[in-house]
Amino acid sequence: MKEVRRHARLLGLYFSQYAKARLEHRVDFFTSVFASFAGTAASFSVVLLLFSRFPHLGGWTFPEIVFLYGFSLVPFGLFNVVSPNLYEFSGRYLTEGRFDRILLRPVSPLFQILFESFRLESLQEVVTGTLAVVWAVRRLPDVSMAGLWLLPLWAVFGAVIYVSIFAILTALGFWIEDRIGIAPPVFNLMSFGRYPLTIYDLKVRVLLSSVIPFAFASFYPTVLALRKAEFIPFFAVVPFVSAASLLLAVFLWRVGVQKYGSTGS
User: In angstroms, what CA-CA distances link 176 with 19, 140, 170?
Assistant: First the structure.
């Protein structure tokens, strides 16, 4: 518990200092927020376009899709806040030798990589997603209150799944010398989790539920609230998938750090 409190305090310090520095340039910050919101609105317009032509999508109504899509933005937004350094890890830290500086500090290297910088403008995705869920709930005839109460916690589990998956992909940089890494193409698969799994064929369902379990971060957390009985067993598995993903990420990072050899720069 002592280490947990220590790292929680460090996280607060990291975040407050970065926020202060970021808000020194308020015009640039609010421009970034607007650009981020515009991107979210553009992606959400795909849902509107689909339902302008079809009354249902895989047996799901428009409010249900809005609920699912809105919720998916919450863990995605939380992930985006802490993910910038994961995308740049191979090139910025390993190839350019900046990882040596990380190892000099008496703090977990993964902790430092995640929380050295933040993408604060992505918090709008959390707000936008929450508003979309509220809008949908008011238009859904039968919503499980237990599912709604658990939704914020399951959103955190979803964010942990996203962070863990990309931390695992980032850790592969210790073995695979690639400046870009394999995270960018996997990132594109995240959008598949914003829609019902029922609209995809079996191969995609298996991919999103086992190989790269994005469905446990976005789709399965909503099924209890939406009373999708056939998927509720998967809802209960979300915390375990989150814990297993995190443990695997931490393990690979520890092994990778031990393998790391300094660039000498």
Answer: 33, 48, 10
Element (H, E) at 27: helix 26-51
Sign of CA pseudo-dihedral 117, 120, 121, 122: positive
d(CA 7, CA 186) in angstroms, rounded, equals 29
Rounded CA-CA distance 184/190 in Å is 11
C-alpha angle 148-125-167 in degrees, rounded to nearest 5: 95
> Each residue of 180-234: pLDDT tens digit?
567 777 877 888 888 888 888 888 889 889 889 999 999 999 999 999 989 999 9
Radius of gyration of the chain (CA): 19
Residue 71 · residue 133 · CB < 8 Å: yes
Rounded to a whole number, what is the distance in angstroms from the first to the last CA of the chain?
37
For the chain, the domains span 2-259
Q: pTM for this structure?
A: 0.89
pLDDT under 50: residue ranges of the chain: none
Q: Which residue's structure tokens are 């599912």?
A: 147
What is the rounded CA–CA span in Å between residue 246 and residue 155? 15
Q: Are 92 and 98 in contact (CB under 8 A)?
A: yes
The contacts of residue 108 (CB under 8 Å, 6+ apart) are: 7
